Fold:
Amino acid sequence: MKTKTKIAVYSGSIPSTTFIERLILGLSTKGYQIYLFGFRKHNVKYNAFVKVVSYKNTKFYKSLHLLKYSLLLVLFKPKEKQKLDAILRSKSQNALLDKTKCYPVLWYKPDIFHIQWAKNLEYWSWVQEFNIKLILSLRGAHINYSPIADRGLANLYRNYFPKVDGFHAVSKAIAYEAEKYKAQPEKIKVVYSGLNLKTFDFSSKRNESNFNIVSIGRPHWKKGYNYALDACSILKKSNIPFTYTIVGAKGYLELLYQIKDLGLEKDVILLGSQSLDEVKRILKEASVFLLPSVEEGIANVVLEAMASGTLVLTTNCGGMEEVVENKINGFVCSIRNPNSIAEQIKSIINLPEEHKNQILNRAKETITKQHTEEQMINGMLEMYSDTLKGDMR
Structure:
């Protein structure tokens, strides 16, 4: 693909999630011109290949932003502006905020417009009217359960998925789910999340005198923490000493009530959000990282745990078994099954140290083979190239 190719990576806010920021950085180091559109949460320094076209989320700055690109389009692209205005009116997207979002995209007119959230697909479908290729990332919540809860969203997917130029799926399981909404298999490319392995120290700092179970993530129903706590109750009744720490769940009433109800006040710790460095420290000191989720694409934090030399126990949700093989490079249990979680933890506790190290080494091999940042970026570039050539298969 020629280096002049212009790629817009759109999430709506700048900066965005860890995966998206890794993608932006990786693409820019390959010499491609990257555009970021949306509102600016705070200033971020990117390299010269990243052009940030943003506004502060205030009425004054949005007005200035709109005025600038309205004038540019009127003076230099009047026919295209008229065409876009007509499209926005037909879709009831003719408010000032809609123009604030859309006018800069039309002005810079990237070759590829890569949106990160499926729910935004209808909104940005207009870019195809201007020969801009539309690519959609397929991720957990937007595919696995949102269209189940919202029939209108499911119908929207069935209407618009066949029109998308290319799909990026974070797992084979997600790709399969998207096909249920008429995404064309030949247009879907599975590109796994990648890590910069230079930022991870593969050396465990486990405290063998205390079995320390750790989970990390917001207290959302899909994270399955209630099943993990029930498993902790089983462990306690079996007189197995442990500490269970959930990072990101401090003060969450439902979990606090369950902890008290199960008599786990001395065994379970709920922490608030932590810095990246602190998360890495907590991971390295864990005896096992537990992902008790009922729904995921592929959880980045599992990849990070495996890259940090920490044993992983995950449920068999979503695409997790594409990464973790039971008793090979980690451990797998059934979703919504506290007994399965507890039994796997018991087996991990009794595992000989030599066997643990073998599993950890195989986990590192898995990350090195299929989850590096370089592999992720190359996979995305291949998808962009195939989309531009109309050769997604």
